[in-house]
Amino acid sequence: MIPDDVVDEVRARADIVDIIGEFVPLKKFGKEYKARCPFHEERTPSFCVVPEKGFYKCFGCGKSGDVFSFVMERLGLDFVEAVKYVAARSGVEVREVSRQKDDEDPHRSLYELNAFARDWFRERLLDPATGAAAQAYLVGRGINASTAERFGLGYAPDEWRALRDAAARHGLDEGLMVEVGLLGRSDRAAEPFDRFRGRIMFPIEGVSGRVVAFGGRVIQGGDRKDAPKYLNSPETPIYHKGNTLYGLSWARHAIRREGSAIVVEGYMDVVSLAAHGFENVVAPLGTAVTTEQAKLLGRYAQRIHLLFDSDTAGLKATFRAGDILLAEGLHPAVVTLPPGEDPDTMVRRQGAAALRAQMDNALDVLDRKLQILEEKDFFSSIERTRKAVDSLLPTLRAAADPTLRDIYVAKVADRTGVRRDTLQGEMTRAAAGAARTPRSDAPASPTAQTPRIPRMGAERTLLLLMTKNQEYVERAGEHLGAEDFVDPAYRAIFQALLTDPELRVPPTAMDPVAAQRFQELLDDPEEIGHASRVFDDAVARVRVETLGRVLRQLDRRIEQAGNDGEKMALMEEKERLSRERRALAPDDWTMTTRRLQGDPNPNL
Question: Which residue intervals of the chain bear CATH 3.90.580.10?
Fold first, then answer.
């Protein structure tokens, strides 16, 4: 037999229009393709292929199915033979394994939970009473009912246990719901609670079409004013965000037909552009574009349009993504939007034609870099030209296509006056240096110690990570509050990020000192190695400092206690918090204890 994951990959990679088109002369009608049915005689075409959904149907004889059932019916093959036939035309290597028990998919229950949640969120959106505000929000964003249905959009009511109770009535496992991120736990709550509340829900599908995770966008009227704008499912056995692109399950056939993909920043951009006729749109999931995502795109097209915001942060993300795509042999082009516009606002205000015009003027990623350097007068002096070359070298090195890399080198040599062999030498030296330096995202040695926080301090380190990755905003909000920050400026920045994790400029109402610090964080180029472990360490240290302050306050209150009962209660609270502090930083606690005991070498 062929494993389910291989069958899913073949189905996902197959272009049903191309394969059925080998047997039937299909003609395009809107989003569908029509022809006279190959299974019965007819004069008027009633055979329809819907590539978006991956199925065909004849409204004359009633035959319908997916790409496998068509091949089975047309060629008389069994299922395994049909999968192999389609795989051979889709570039997928098929392996067969011996048949196993019915429970061979260990993650089936996780997929079933997500499918239940998707349907439940969808029902809440369509409910005239519960979903009224959410429906109004979508209409205000230009999302009609058809587009909402296509993407399976839903609504999570602003209640603490509505989904939990619904799942319990169906006998669904509460622990698994916590594992996939549908329910949350907190030290402040005795029982699990609905993690998504008061949010438009975006189901995230794998390439096979199964729901692997969710993203939730808060709407007005939510129960927490400081709630992050977007809340995403955590990584799970079935969801690895760096390996997934939002919208790819819907867009993959359009990407193949168009010969190009449009990469935008978030869910709403994907849905909004789809509502305005752009079918080949995908988005990374709250992180920078990854190598795995670039490889996914490379299955369907070589030409990639990067359609990010055109502010400073957006340009940085654009060029990081461009280099990743180049390294996988793809050809990225940069679409530049007018100041203050993003893809969603532009199509809503100016229409699809205006955005298409901007895309027609897209520049190769190196050309766009050169254009920006020209605009900033980087070729006016020797020193600035040297800096320009330094900023261009990563893109030269990234280009895996040897012809494209040669074109790049020639263009940079011509514009900067630096000889080609000199540029080649610089590229070689930089590559050798990178080979000697471990990648920041490389897995740590099993015996490696937890990395130390850089000397910038735990509060600043934590905020720096939060500005670079929205996932850390959510995680930090689960463990810390603004009151945990000693520095008033960092406290204000933390609160601002909790309110809007997508902030890329300081809010106008922010204190000038905090605004300056925030801008420094946004502009900081430092890449912190082993970021997840550094984040955990930073959270622990901030929390340890908070507990230290609370313990000192308790000491004063114990001294001032008016009676033995009050004093005993305070001492019990002190012991509880002391245990929590020791658990967070056992090494620091041991060193402090030894110092207090008079140990001359507390660090040994």
Answer: 4-88
The CATH number assigned to the domain with range 108-239 reads: 3.90.980.10
Q: For 40, phi and psi rounded to 5 degrees?
A: -155, 160
Q: Where in the chain is the domain with CATH 1.10.860?
A: 451-604
Distance from first CA to last CA of the chain, Å, rounded?
A: 60
- Please identify every stretch of the chain with a pLDDT value under 70, giving residue numbers as ranges: 1, 95-105, 187-189, 220-227, 287, 430-456, 527, 529, 585-604
d(CA 197, CA 189): 16
Give the Cα separation of 383 and 381 in Å (integer): 6
pLDDT digits (tens, 9 = 90+) for 61-101: 888 899 999 988 887 777 888 888 888 887 777 766 554 44
In CATH, the architecture of 4-88 is: Alpha-Beta Complex (3.90)
d(CA 130, CA 167): 18
- What's the DSSP call for residue 306? E
Taking the domain 248-361, which CATH number applies?
3.40.1360.10
- Is CATH 2.40.160 correct for 451-604? no
Instruction: Convert the pLDDT of each residue in 105-156 to its tens digit.
Output: 678 899 999 999 999 999 999 999 999 999 999 998 889 888 999 899 999 9
Residues paired with residue 29 on neighbouring β-strands, in sequence order? 32
